[in-house]
Write a structure and sequence with these properties.
Number of helices: 26
Strand order of the largest sheet: 3-5-4
Strand content: under 5%
Radius of gyration: 24 Å
Shape: globular
Largest sheet: 3 strands, mixed
Number of strands: 5
Helix content: 55-70%
Length: 587
């Protein structure tokens, strides 16, 4: 397999780069400038508009130094044992925590300001959504000293536990047919056409988790315990309420979405019953969730996958096509799994140089094409924000997952258009498999995390109790779609999102993004090229407008359960179409 690595040297040459060390010092100085400003300028005698504008400007400057943590994260993602990068990452986290008290002071200052009556200037107008959000956040502030203490404790608390989990899982190997196989590669075998190999890989994965399960349980208990204490002190009713606030939505939106999912749970799980029947099984075991359907096994080199995505993007717009070319030609992607590389995939933006980087674990399946299209969709949204300030280039997860999922839809639509027969069946099934992961499996993860938080309030959970909660959540979400005797009790151990104390309930934005993207894709099919400029406006506005206001650009009310129902109904229609294709295949 050709060795392809992403280009990082235009950010920093290495963790020992003198430029990196100097930038860390400059970052520290910039945060101290914020601290000094908040100590000296936040007083009643100063002109509010002038104070707010000046503070916003300094924050924009400080945010450009996010390239430091981004770079170190890139290094650790592909070389988890890099001690120099890990040491610097700890230092940067500590520096970042040094401005927490100032953020608290500024929030307290905003609480006394009526932003709606404030004399507007260009800076305030441009960052009005940010300022409203900061003011609302201030009512959950711990105060200057409390914020500073919380930030500092986190570096030796939840962040330390998170790094332990990363260390445990990134170095984990599985015994598959007598070979030591990296965890990410083992998990990718779930897509293999060989049913025996899928089963062996699943069993090997569970066996491997047993080696680190007790330590993983300790990590999860510590992190969620810290979150419970912090959200309680901040005056939130729950970690879920804080999560919704951070995602830019309220609980009414979340309830409307999951109500629509719950009301259609049986229809959505029809997909898994169809798949079980196709594979000749009464019920689908967990290890067959991603079993390929169709007589044609689609395999791709990374070059073929890249070309597919480039042509897909070009088919939507010239701008997106040129962006895809730039990503691939400039080596912004690190594609292949190897020992020491973390699992999963992500895209991260470096505002200072206006570039993104994409990490994935490519194994040659059609799903990897979708992953590449998904992550590049994040990158394209970043590209639309070139003219935005650093503050307005940051946007909530709910809107971030819309762009990526929309690009998945583009890739699937192209696959369904150019493929026929068994290959078409394969792609159709793959599309639904991915979407139901975003809805059904994520619903199970949501239910697990919600129940874990509730039980954690009573005390630490044992390993067995943690696994039992995951099984219970999977049974409810998959509602008879899977074999209840063959589920995945360790799903909580393999997903990194559970271990980031800043992103609790991380997963539901994927369901939000999937169903929002479905709606936008339907608009694209109706409007054709006229939709393209609207799409760019929606993406570029994600940090400047509220989530609800972004929805209004597309004529959508996220609190209306009927909106979510509409997206689900289109998925149910695709499930029926899949059933028809399978009948044609087996005849």
């Amino acid at each position: 397999m050709e060795k392809i690595q992403w280009k990082l040297e235009n950010i920093y040459k290495s963790p020992d780069d003198e430029k990196l060390i100097n930038d860390i010092e400059k970052y520290s100085e910039k945060l101290e400038e914020i601290n000094t400003f908040c100590r000296e300028r936040l007083n009643p005698s100063a002109e509010p508009a002038e104070v707010i504008s000046e503070y916003t400007g300094i924050v924009n400057e400080a945010l450009l130094y996010n390239k430091i943590s981004a770079y170190l994260n890139f290094v650790l993602s592909v070389d988890s044992g890099n001690k120099q990068a890990a040491k610097l990452f700890d230092r940067v986290c500590a520096i970042s925590a040094s401005s927490a008290s100032s953020e608290g002071l500024f929030g307290e200052y905003l609480k006394e300001i009526d932003l709606d009556t404030l004399e507007k200037n260009e800076v305030i107008t441009e960052h009005f959504n940010f300022l409203k959000t900061e003011k609302a956040k201030a009512f959950h502030s711990l105060g200057a000293k409390g914020e500073a203490l919380a930030a500092r404790l986190k570096t030796t608390g939840s962040k330390a536990w998170e790094k332990l989990w990363e260390s445990l899982t990134s170095g984990l190997t599985c015994d598959v047919e007598g070979k030591n196989v990296p965890l990410a590669e083992t998990r990718s075998m779930a897509y293999n056409a060989d049913g025996n190999l899928r089963k062996k890989a699943y069993e090997a994965e569970l066996k491997a988790y047993e080696k680190i399960a007790e330590e993983g349980t300790a990590c999860l208990n510590a992190i969620k315990g810290e979150v419970i204490n912090e959200t309680d002190l901040r005056g939130y009713s729950s970690a879920l309420e804080k999560s919704a606030f951070d995602a830019g939505i309220d609980l009414d939106i979340l309830k409307a979405m999951f109500k629509a999912v719950d009301d259609n749970i049986d229809g959505l799980n029809k997909f898994y019953r169809i798949k079980a029947d196709y594979l000749g099984k009464e019920k689908l075991p967990f290890y067959d969730l991603f079993a390929p359907v169709g007589k044609s096994e689609l395999k791709f080199t990374f070059e073929e996958a890249s070309e597919f995505v480039k042509e897909t993007y070009s088919g939507f717009s010239e701008k997106m096509g040129k962006f895809a070319e730039k990503v691939l030609e400039s080596r912004w992607v690190d594609p292949f799994p190897h020992k020491g590389k973390v699992g999963g995939a992500y895209c991260e933006y470096i505002k200072d140089i206006e570039e993104s980087r994409i990490m994935m674990n490519f194994s040659g399946n059609f799903e990897d094409i979708i992953t590449l299209s998904h992550e590049m969709g994040h990158g394209y949204q970043n590209e639309t924000m070139r003219g935005e300030t650093p503050i307005n280039s940051d946007y909530p997860m709910t809107l971030a997952e819309t762009a990526s999922t929309f690009c998945e839809n583009l890739a699937f639509a192209r696959g369904e258009k150019i493929l026929k027969g068994s290959e078409l069946l394969t792609v159709k099934e793959s599309r639904l498999s991915g979407e139901l992961q975003s809805i059904i499996d994520i619903y199970s993860r949501f239910l697990f995390e919600d129940s874990f938080f509730e039980e954690r309030k009573k005390g630490s959970l044992s390993l067995d109790e943690t696994c039992e909660l995951m099984i219970k959540a999977q049974k409810k979400a998959y509602a008879g779609g899977l074999d209840e005797n063959i589920l995945h009790p360790y799903m909580w151990l393999c997903k990194p999102h559970y271990y980031d104390s800043d992103f609790n309930y991380y997963n539901y934005p994927y369901a939000f993004g999937d169903l929002f993207a479905r709606s936008l894709f339907a608009m694209y099919e109706d409007m054709g090229e006229e939709f393209i400029p609207l799409y760019d406006i929606i993406l570029s506005s994600a940090g400047r407008l509220s989530v609800e206001d972004v929805g209004k650009l597309a004529g959508i009310d996220f609190k209306d359960e009927k909106f979510w129902e509409k997206g689900i109904k289109s998925i149910l229609k695709d499930i029926d179409e899949l059933e028809g294709l399978i009948k044609e295949e087996v005849q």
